[in-house]
Amino acid sequence: MPQSLHILSAHIIFSTKERQPWLTPKIRDRVWAYQSRILQNLQCNSITIGGVADHVHVLCNLTKKISNG
Fold first, then answer.
1. Which residue from 56, 55, 54, 57 is spatially nearest to 20, judged by alpha carbons?
2. Which of 3, 7, 4 is nearest to 44 (CA)?
3. Which residues are registered as beta bridge partners of 8?
4. DSSP 65
5. What is the DSSP string of 30-53?
6. Per-residue pLDDT tens over the stretch 46-58
7. Distance, CA of 19 to CA of 16 (rounded, Å)
8. Per residue in 1-45, pLDDT tens?
9. Where in the chain are the domains?
10. How far is it, in rounded angstroms, from Cα 9 to Cα 45?
11. pLDDT band at 63 (very low <50, low <70, confident <90, very high)
């Protein structure tokens, strides 16, 4: 039975509105954990999530189970 390997990595950047520094150190971990949980619910593997006060970087492997159409 043939098998195939599917890996589609994505680097996604989220910015706060007007690049305002709303992501204080106090809430960053909670925001990152929330985003990681969303990816888990979509069956995507988060590799790393991090950022600074005005934006967040997400590196993840996308699932092939969800289409974009």
1. 54
2. 7
3. 62
4. S
5. HHHHHHHHHHHHTT-EEEEEEEET
6. 999 999 999 999 9
7. 5
8. 678 888 899 999 999 999 999 999 999 999 999 999 999 999 999
9. 8-48+56-62
10. 9
11. confident
